Fold:
Amino acid sequence: MRQAKQPFQFVTASYLIRITRDRAMTLEELARILHSCSEASIFHHTFQSLERQHYVSFSNDFAQWALTACNEPPLAEELAAIDLRDCTSIDDLRKSLTSRVDGYILDNASASTRRAFENFFFCEALEFLVNRDEKAMNLAELEEGIRKMSLQTVHHHFINSRLRLRLQTNDFSNWIDTSLGLPELARRVEGIDIYVNTLDGLREEILQVIHPWIDR
Amino acid sequence: MMVDAKPAASAPSPIDDYAAVVGASEIGELRVFARQLQGRRVKMVNSTAVGGGVAEILNRLVPLLRELGVQTNWEVLTGGEQFFAVTKGFHNALHGAPYEGGADWMDIYLATNEENRRRMTFDEDYIVIHDPQPAALVEARDGSKGCWSWRCHIDLSHPSLEVWNFLKPYVERYDASMFSSPAFTQGLNIPQYLVYPTIDPLADKNRELEPEFIRGVLERFGIDPERPIVTQISRFDRLKDPLGVIQAYKMVKRHNDCQLVLAGGAASDDPEGQTVLAEVQEAAQGEPDIHILSLPPWSYLEINALQRGSTIVVQKSIREGFGLTVTEALWKKKPVVASAVGGIPSQVLHKLTGMLVHSVDGTAYQIRFLLSNPAFARQLGENGYQHVRENFLITQHLKRYLLLFLSFQQGK
Structure:
């Protein structure tokens, strides 16, 4: 079995949600706060929301609010169409969000000050990480570790890692490529769709992609 | 009063038993975070050991924290009838009703808090004070080395300013606060964290029951298991609008054959309960299919059976903290019709995990809709169960507390 140059370090990751004082009652207020709110807020309502969106229509909180509280489905679709995989920094993401909301308000002035059905409350995620004793030196150990990790840790390694690495990839693909030297497998893992899967489904799909490569 | 955190009906399950519900990985990670807190001590203080959602949560949470190695004490505020009448008024006023206490309410409140402050010690590392009743205990923090948190279980979005302006200076002396929904906050100048209340899936109130047992409980209360049952489980409190539920039921009854169950108990800190119960009994007079059940606080299995035996569960609150009875019903895969107040919209995503309503008319309409569309009702129940499994089980709650304590330890 192919051994890695560097071990994969498993962590335990979880988040505490801090409620900020910022709240938007209209699209105009959303636009204003989006320009100035903390990076942690942008992160929470886009990356973090991917772990809890099984029942709602859209994958980020801003899009969902535009739909259900403002009744502006075209804006909701525009915001939901932002693919986090194209953003390597929160600043990129903030620009994508603000340009869409600002543009929509310009074209739909009457919608911008209409009171939403419910307020948008800006929150932030505080991340807590603990390195585990377990490390992986090959694909079998990686598979075992992924099987045992909590869903929040799956989210940390597969989704949140994109920002940390400032790369358009995830922790697993990054390690598979750079430490195991398997770029094709890295590409396939990276190709898994984070938008249409639950985290349980995401984990299963990662395992299905990795498993056939273990004995190669 | 020191509480031993062992409810009469059942001892808490060991932490590893929860792996069957949430997965071994989640339990393993709780242990990882708890290890970071070894040797640290916690104190929880609230105002009642029995009855009401807060006591129920603490009865499960405290033993689990201890099992994870976080030494946790739970103490209950002691006070007289006058004090609890004042704090019941606080409770209603913070939910938006005008405060109707006597002239000396501040003195009564502060005197009881002061008596309790002298009686208790606060030498733990982390002190968590629950709700307004003991909030002024924070006066003790000057001589304490610990970090103090205020856990607010109620909806503060539209408080009576008379009461809130009195309490706020005390609250802002804490190091952090916890709320059940972002909408409940008041823009405090201390950190405000989101901590959902949760249920214990292994407690007698929520665990699986044999169908024969459920049937037996229904029959014991004179409820026909063969006909549709619409149920609201709540203590008899005006904010739970039991009279509104009876009105809605009477509107439904014109179209659908069904029974109504209103079941609940009284918490020791709620002096109004008997009055409201009498009003409800009067409103139900002459309606043989309305069952008013005043249950003792240890009726966990009976409540569980009533929920599981129901066709639809209703929670027509006017104001609500989080609404754990909704969580319980969703966990049991029941279609829920509930008011869009407090923390209920976090649980009931309209037409996805239940039906949100805003009036008696709306409540009646959605009950009729679900009684007539059982396949849709079943799908709501399935979704609701998954939603609770992911967000509102006690293991998540444990993790939030561990992370809060870690945030203090790490200076975040």
Remarks:
- The beta strands of chain A are 8-24, 120-136.
- The first helix of chain A runs from residue 27 to 36.
